[in-house]
Each structure stands twice: as C-alpha cells, then as structure tokens.
C-alpha cells in the first residue's frame, strides 16, 4: 500500500507513506521509486530507524532503536554503521567513537555502567586492540591491548599518588599427557608483573580529553 506523491512515470517520488508486504512501514521522502532523503522506517518487530536514506539504504545521519532497548545514533554508509556514532546497549553500557562495517573500529570510549569504569583507546573490528587507557574509580591502567586483553608494558596510576610500572605477560599453557584432546583449552589470562613504583607523573582531566576520539 502506498499513499503519496509520484512522478510523471508513476514512480514514488516526493513524500509518501507505505506499508510493506512484511508489515513494516515507511514514511518519508522518495526519489524515482526508492527511499531517498529523510524518513522513518518502522519494523514489524518493534525496531525503528529515523534518518537519511540513499537509494533504499540507510546512509548519512540516522538513529536506530532496537527491540531490546538499545540504540545507535550516528553515521551510516550503505546500511552499515560507519563513521562516528554513539551506541547505548541494553545493559546501559555506552560506546562513543568510530565505526566501520557495523563494528567499533578506530578511536572510541566504552563506559561500563555497572562499575563506572571506561576504556578509552583503539578498537579493531569490534575488539579492544592497540594503545588505550582503562579508567577505574580510583586508579587507571595505561598500556596496550591485544584481542581485548592488556598485553606488554604499561603502568597503573593510583589516585593516592604513585605509578606502578610493569608488563602483562601471556602465560604459556602446559599440556598434561593424559589430557583429553576433545576438551578445548581456555586461553589463560595475561599476568601482571610489577617492575617498579614511581611518583605520580603529572596528569589533569584535560589530558583525558586529548585522548578522546
């Protein structure tokens, strides 16, 4: 069903409202039969997108509300989250930063609602990877991450006034001869080895802003 403007060739063109065979609805701008410009698309499952379209695809600025209560507001390219945007997750966590191909990719800040901790740094294909800072309520860790875990040299900065230097080492898993092969081995957590403690290096909230995306 369609109700709205058409061009001389009878194509949907201008402003219109449509109900799709699957129960979804669209209200917004069309160009030569395709969703183009600003519009609102309501999915039968309760999801909703409001924003820009280019040739039937989400493209430009737009907000997507998911059925689980989560929400993404930001840039889209050909139906993919790409560019800069903020995602509020169903559990209250938030990510603000760069995206590519629907994944967190580039510089971004992830805030954990339960603990108030936040990760400020690099992401690769949705995973924490590269130089970053993990900020907790009374201390922070500055270093590098690989595949979501801290690895290599870094330091813990404590609000009481000292830095703890060291490195995260990936322990090697020793196999027992009797071990059953069917059991998949769970990778061991990196271990923190302290190399020394020093006085606090100067730090101000302004530095944190400079680290941001």
Task: Characterize the structure shown.
The chain has 213 residues and is mostly beta strands. The chain folds into 2 domains: 1-83, Histone H3 K4-specific methyltransferase SET7/9 N-terminal domain, CATH 2.20.110.10; 91-172 and 190-199, Histone H3 K4-specific methyltransferase SET7/9 N-terminal domain. The protein has one helix spanning 205-211; strands at 2-6, 12-19, 25-31, 34-42, 48-54, 57-65, 71-77, 80-88, 94-100, 103-111, 118-124, 127-135, 139-146, 149-150, 152-158, 162-169, 191-199. It has a 17-stranded antiparallel beta sheet that branches. The protein is elongated. Residues 207-213 have low confidence and may be disordered.
Secondary structure: elements and pairs:
Blueprint: E1 2-6, E2 12-19, E3 25-31, E4 34-42, E5 48-54, E6 57-65, E7 71-77, E8 80-88, E9 94-100, E10 103-111, E11 118-124, E12 127-135, E13 139-146, E14 149-150, E15 152-158, E16 162-169, E17 191-199, H1 205-211
Antiparallel strand pairs: 1-2, 2-3, 3-4, 4-5, 5-6, 6-7, 7-8, 8-9, 9-10, 10-11, 11-12, 12-13, 13-14, 13-15, 15-16, 16-17
Q: What are the salient characteristics of this protein?
A:
single chain, 213 residues, mainly beta, Histone H3 K4-specific methyltransferase SET7/9 N-terminal domain, 17-stranded antiparallel beta sheet, 1 helix, 60% strand, elongated, disordered C terminus
A few lines on this structure:
With 213 residues, the chain is mainly beta.
SS field, number of helical segments = 1
Radius of gyration: 24 Å
**Mean pLDDT rating:** 91
Strand content: over 45%
Region (Disordered): 1-20
Organism: Cinclus mexicanus (American dipper)
Pfam family, one: MORN
Function: Functions as part of axonemal radial spoke complexes that play an important part in the motility of sperm and cilia.
């Amino acid at each position: 069903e369609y109700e709205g403007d058409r061009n001389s060739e009878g194509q949907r063109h201008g402003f219109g409202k449509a109900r799709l065979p699957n129960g979804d609805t669209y209200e917004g701008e069309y160009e030569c039969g395709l969703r183009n410009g600003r519009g609102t698309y309501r999915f039968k499952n309760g999801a909703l997108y409001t924003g820009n379209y280019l040739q039937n695809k989400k493209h430009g600025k737009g907000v997507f509300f998911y059925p689980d209560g989560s929400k993404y507001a930001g840039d889209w390219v050909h139906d993919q989250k790409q560019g800069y945007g903020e995602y509020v997750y169903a559990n209250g966590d938030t990510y603000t930063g760069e995206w590519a191909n629907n994944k967190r990719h580039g510089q971004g800040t992830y805030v954990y609602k339960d603990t108030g901790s936040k990760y400020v740094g690099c992401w690769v294909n949705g995973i924490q990877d590269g130089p970053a800072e993990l900020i907790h309520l009374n201390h922070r860790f500055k270093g590098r991450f690989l595949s979501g875990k801290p690895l290599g040299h870094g330091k813990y900065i404590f609000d009481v006034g000292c830095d703890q230097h060291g490195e995260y080492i990936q322990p090697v898993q020793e196999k027992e001869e009797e071990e059953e092969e069917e059991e998949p081995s769970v990778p061991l957590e990196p271990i923190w080895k302290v190399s020394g403690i020093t006085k606090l290096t100067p730090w101000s909230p302004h530095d944190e802003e400079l680290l941001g995306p």
